[in-house]
Amino acid sequence: MIEFSTHLRSKLPRAQTTIFTKMSTLANEYNAINLSQGFPNFDVAPELISLVSKAMNNGENQYAPMQGIFELRQELSLAFKRFYGQHYDANEEITITSGATQAIYSAITTVINDGDEAIIIEPAFDIYIPGIKINGGIPRIYKLKGDDYHVDWYELRRLFTSRTKLIIINSPHNPTSTILSKDDLQKLEAITKGTDIIVLSDEVYEHIVFDGAKHQSVAAFPELAKRSFVIGSFGKTFHVTGWKTGFCMAPKKLMNEFRKIHQNVVFAGNRPMQVALAKYMNNAENYVHIHQMYEQKRNYFLKLMKNSRFTPLPSKGTYFQLFKYDRISDEKELDFAIRLIKEYGVASIPLSYFYSDKTDNKVLRFCFAKTDETLKKAAEILCKI
Ligand code: GLN
Predict the structure, then answer these.
(1) What's the alpha-carbon Rg for the chain, to the nearest Å?
(2) What sign results for the dihedral spanned by CA atoms 285, 290, 291, 292?
(3) Which end of the chain is less crowded, N or C, counting CB atoms within 10 A of the terminal residue's CB?
(4) Nearest protein Cα to ligand 1, atom 8
(5) From atom 7 of ligand 1, which residue's Cα is the shortest distance away?
(6) Ligand 1 contacts CB of residue 37 (under 6 A)
(7) Distance 194 CA to ligand 1 centre (A)
(8) Using CA positions, which residue lies closest to atom 4 of ligand 1?
(9) pTM above 0.90?
(10) How far is residue 25 from each of residues 147, 244, 349, measured CA to CA in Å?
């Protein structure tokens, strides 16, 4: 180890390694079934893999354009027109990123200057607040209400000040698995009307919505689309989280500023994956039904867990299922989650990690993007607790 002798003022003095890395590491260490970090453990479509190999063999190995390859932007443009009725110009309004995380960070950086305020709805995915703080911004927290984790938009509006620059929304929602309704988005449209507030809409689970519900994208609400960044993820839709390929869409003026940041963070995303994804996405049949597969998995997992002492909360989208464990233990979420790994061999994520005040309601998040065999093994263990 090299001794470091200079003083460094940390940008995030209290930040620790993310809970996803921590729990996955612990799961590996104890050889536990890993339902913590959200990623599929089943195979990627062989066709998609072979398209990547072909791209590499065809010499698609040098930089992609800064904006991402045109064909993939074009596919996204067509998809957004088809699903949400909104036209995004492939040249000016769409950028391919190195995963949704980079897109979100770059969008936050585009908007937030020193002292600006951003509204975060908690529980919230763990990268929003650090992104705001790194840029000198101030997060203003709104907590979701009730067991159904809903937003009272008029109450949320009370957090608006003259310094509010950004509001981050996320539907389907990680970690609660709730979805925003048309009424929610109409209310958001109403409360932001006449303000300069920009909306960052994290929609990475856009194709994973259950029980016949329809994903409500900000793209489908013209007044919201005018002030919004929409963030998406190929990793979630095509079961390739390790490819770290996502996208950002926004009106030209916003996108121009976004690209100034993006090109200085990564310059461009990786090329062969983009080439393959463009070809694969061209056939919508390759992904429009993934909600059925995940709905089956959710139902299967819930059925297996029926006789357990864990109480499920409704999962309306994403590939996560929340369970309350208050009938089993009154331990804190992190303690219980660690004990589940060490003593029982099943890893989950404590919900308290998605709250800045570590609100602890005895709820754990389990990822069901797993083979039926894995879900069965995990449920067998959980049912004995
Ligand atoms: N989005 C995934 C989750 O919520 C993985 C996040 C990560 O590891 N950064 O589990």
Answers:
(1) 21
(2) positive
(3) N
(4) 20
(5) 20
(6) yes
(7) 35
(8) 38
(9) yes
(10) 30, 20, 12
Q: What phi, psi does 232 have (nearest 5°)?
A: -135, 170
Positions in the chain short of pLDDT 70: none
Write the pLDDT tens digit of every residue in 100-139: 999 999 999 999 999 999 999 999 999 999 999 999 999 9
Beta pairing, strands 198-202 & 228-233: parallel
Query: Ligand 1 centroid to 251 CA: how many Å?
Result: 28
pLDDT tens-place string over residues 283-339: 999 999 999 999 999 999 999 999 999 999 999 999 999 999 999 999 999 999 999
Sign of CA dihedral 369, 375, 381, 383: positive
Residue 374: CB atoms within 10 A of its CB come to 17
Domains by residue range for the chain, with CATH: 19-44+288-382 (3.90.1150.10), 47-286 (3.40.640.10)
Q: Are 323 and 336 in contact (CB under 8 A)?
A: no
205, amino acid identity: Y
- pLDDT at position 147 is 87
CA of 209 to the centre of ligand 1 (A): 18
pLDDT confidence of residue 64: 98
- Tokens standing for residue 163: 């310094």
Q: Is the CB of 36 under 6 A from ligand 1?
A: no
- If one counts every other C-beta atom within 10 angstroms of the C-beta of residue 39, the result is 18
